[in-house]
Amino acid sequence: MRFLLVDPPHKIWTILRAWVPSPGCLQLLAYIEREQFDIDYMDCTLNENPWRDLEEKVRREKPEVIGISVGCTAFIYDGMNTASLIKAVSPESIIIVGGEHPSFMAEETLRDCPAIDYICVGEGEVTLGEFLRAVEKNEDLSKVLGLAYLNEKGEFVYTGERSFIGDLDTLPMPAYHLAKMEHPYVDLPSEGSRGFVVNFSRGCTWDCTFCSESAFYKKTWRKRSPKLIADELQLLKEKYNRDIFYVGDNTFNVTKEQSIGFIEEMLKRKTNQHFWLQSRADLIIRDEDLLDGYREAGVYQFMMGLEYHKDSVLKDIRKRHSAEQARKAMELLKKHQLMVMATLLIGHWDETEEDRKVFLKFFGKYVDHFGLNLITPLPGTPLFYKMKEMGRIEDWDYRNFDYLHAVMATKEADNLEQVNLIYKDIMRRYYWRPRELLKLLSPNPILRRHHRYYITKVAFNIMMHEIFGTPMWVQPNYQEYKDYLVEREEALPEELMDLAR
Ligand code: B12
Ligand code: SF4
Q: N or C: which end of the chain has fewer CB within 10 A?
């Protein structure tokens, strides 16, 4: 039985200008391959003509089951459009969709997109394996845990909770052999010439109100063992020539043993690879004695979700550390010659201009890599349910749930456009400070490269767009789905064409 996994066509994020095969998809594929299914993978973002290539492939091959992955809320319409296109050209293919957003919003997604047959709710490997086996043997799918669908009467059915895989070490190495590792988009242009994204753990034991990861993995954390991490990194170096990584784990060092194990393995392997890891302020303070070891093992930067400079806000979003701890963690990283990337959240309900001045001063002193975000009520999070109940979500276009577009106003800025302007203003005030411009000449090659990239490419592009209306950067092969439908008018059924009008 033939199974095709599709990562739908996406618009690449202007800020990062990078694309990578989804670690979740590669892990799913490896598992399904081990289960001996006939598999294929299409990461449409990398195709010359994403929609046309997808249509032609499905029309030609008509796989029995097609999986669609939706990694972010902002990508849900891409996923739905992909399902509609597939159903139009191969009605007999069974479509199953997975990922965080459809898991949280299963009923809404199924009702909004009739082309989707099933949703895999939660972690995918075991559910997908059992699902494919049941389809192959024509067995009762209602017995497969972790599925959601609409029955013949149109009623929503959820087959029950699928428990998490106990030991991530039992999963095979991600299926890098199925990814287009040499594609020019597959890179992290701000970081280095051979950048890549990897993922070695799932979840986080904290419970910040805005965090979809902690909600998805129900406040649990599981990880690969340091030996398998090092094996994977070594393979990426030796076979795929990758040596600089954004490690996407939400919180890399939940336990100290994991840190020690990683450092020891990387020092032993001597692969000369470099890492940007994610952690929390309190864990950086706890692991102060390991910071030099991290650096020697190749870590050049820690990204911390420090969010805001005021304890009242940190308490409100359940960050569970203080602003003083955030400051201390930044100082410690600097002391140990590690770069500080802070992901920050603005757009809080009570925020004032005075708050923003203090915010900029507080973080501007230490931060090398400024990850400014607008607080976003991602579906599935406690923040989402609270804001929905309070009626504060003003924009329900999920494309805008990407942390870069305001979907909620504040007490002071009572329309979304104003909040968007505040965001741009803070970016400008941060990046055009002499201190930041000096970093263009920094002796630290990673910092220099990073700043040259952001200032000359990203910030300059945004500035030209705002002043002269020049277009924002979009990857050359990007095409809106509706434009594709218009282009293909004669070849597609009427109901699909209606979407484009
Ligand atoms: C890799 C990554 C990226 C890559 C993209 C990779 C890709 N091809 O999609 C890059 C770096 C480009 C990226 C960009 C963005 N990302 Co990102 N990214 C991640 C990251 C680090 C890893 C995702 C991952 O693989 N996780 C591990 C796997 C195991 O989990 P998974 O993907 O959920 O897959 C499992 C299940 O969901 C399920 N499943 C998934 N798909 C399918 C399909 C089928 C058929 C089935 C059965 C099951 C199934 O099974 C999988 C295995 O168990 C996560 C953070 C994290 N640690 O998860 C953020 C994350 C997914 N990104 C996020 C966001 C918001 C973005 C951005 C929109 C911007 C931003 N502010 O960060 C941009 C996208 C903009 C753009 N247009 O490019 C959010 C999404 C939140 C949300 N709910 O919307 C996350 C969770 C980070 C966060 N906490 O904020 N990202
Ligand atoms: S610490 Fe980070 S990953 Fe953990 S719950 Fe908070 S935001 Fe999510």
A: C
In 3-state terms, what secondary structure has residue 139? Answer: coil
Strand partners, 195: 244
User: Are the beta carbons of 124 and 32 closer than 8 angstroms?
Assistant: no
User: Hey, is 303 helix, strand or coil?
Assistant: strand
- Of 167-181, 226-240, 436-450, the poorest mean pLDDT is in 436-450
Q: Whose CA is closest to 40, among 181, 177, 166?
A: 177
Q: Is the CB of 473 inside a 6 Å radius of any atom of ligand 1?
A: no
State which of 202, 204, 210, 341 you would mutate to test the pocket of ligand 2, scoring each by most atoms of that ligand within 8 A of its C-beta.
204
Q: Using an 8 Å Cβ cutoff, are 117 and 84 in contact? A: no
Round to whole Å and give the CA distance between 183 and 178. Answer: 12
Q: What pLDDT is stored for residue 17 in this prediction?
A: 87
- Copy the structure tokens of residue 286: 């706890």
Q: CB of 208 closer than 6 A to ligand 2?
A: yes
Average pLDDT, the chain: 95
Given the DSSP bridges, would you call strands 65-69 and 94-98 parallel, antiparallel or unpaired? parallel
Q: Where does the pLDDT of residue 457 fall: very low under 50, low under 70, confident under 90, or very high at 90 and above?
A: confident
Whether residue 310 has its Cβ less than 6 Å from ligand 2: no
Q: Nearest-5° angle of CA 406, CA 409, CA 415?
A: 90
Half-sphere exposure of 127 (CA within 13 A, CB side): 25
- Neighbouring-strand partners of residue 340: 302
Phi-psi region of 203 (alpha: psi -120 to 50; beta: other; left: phi over 0): left
> What is the percent of the chain where pLDDT is above 90?
86
Of 395, 358, 359, residue with least CA distance to 376: 395
User: Of all helices (H) and strands (E), which one includes residue 68?
Assistant: strand 65-69
